[in-house]
Amino acid sequence: AAKQRNSGAVTYIPEIDKSSQQSLSLLSELRAALDHNAFRLYVQPKVELGTGRVIAVEALVRWIHPERGFIFPDQFIPFAEQTGFIRLLTRWVLEQAATMCSEWEARGLHLKMSVNLSTRDLLDQDLPNKFADILARHKISPESFCLEITESAIMDDPVRAQQTLERLHVMGVDLSIDDFGTGYSSLAYLKSLPVDELKIDKSFVLKMEQDLDDAKIVRSTIDLGHNMGLRVVAEGVENKDVMQLLREMGCDQAQGYYISKPMPAEHLQEWVMKWVP
Ligand code: C2E
Ligand code: CA
Ligand code: CA
Ligand code: CA
Question: Domain named EAL: which ranges (predicted)?
Answer without folding.
Answer: 23-276
